[in-house]
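Quick one, T. Sequence first:
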Amino acid sequence: MAGLDKRVTSYQQALAGLEDNMTVLAGGFGLCGIPENLIAQIRRQGTKGLRVVSNNCGVDGFGLGLLLENQQIKTMVASYVGENALFEQQMLSGELEVILTPQGTLAEKVRAGGAGIPAFYTATGYGTPVAEGKEVRVFDGRHYILEQAIRGDFAIVKGWKADWYGNVIYRHTAQNFNPLMAMAARVTVVEVEEIVAPGELDPAAIHTPGIYVDRLIQGSFEKRIEQRTLRTGGAHVDA
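Structure tokens:
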């Protein structure tokens, strides 16, 4: 039986139903593999009070940093502050609630949410502020803390190539958090560089099956580089 055609023709359609105070899962790592056009659409829509879950929060003036500038994020769940000075400023001032989570734990919390696992035990963070208020158990003589899974209302994901049915392939390291986010939301929206007809993708190469994808849109991407290092005359120069 043929699958459902997931394509939409506008970013307004792609994010229809996104409302204030929802939880948004955003793929990407630094500026690699971020759904930059979907983020820009959230800014245009002006959706506020969002709880955003992502590895980090973009940079000043780009990526999720655009939503910080517009004060659309109420709570940020991330593994590090990164290169975003505004993120740091809003966190230290108390304007932005930040839940810093170890990177592997964050990935597993989202993966568990997508797999239908409500919680899991991990040794990461035991004995640190990360463990405060969390259940602790001992397995084989080692302490573990209970971490709850994460699910979202919307997931915004960046892929490389997809077919009409929403089967997605990511390119190299741009895969990062994207497949995890795609599995863990009520509505998953994927933007890609190329959409091909059904049957053109090698089934063995597909990273995210279309069953997880609700909407698919083709976009063009700026693909900024967060840190560019050039070699000049034998010395490294950071640009």
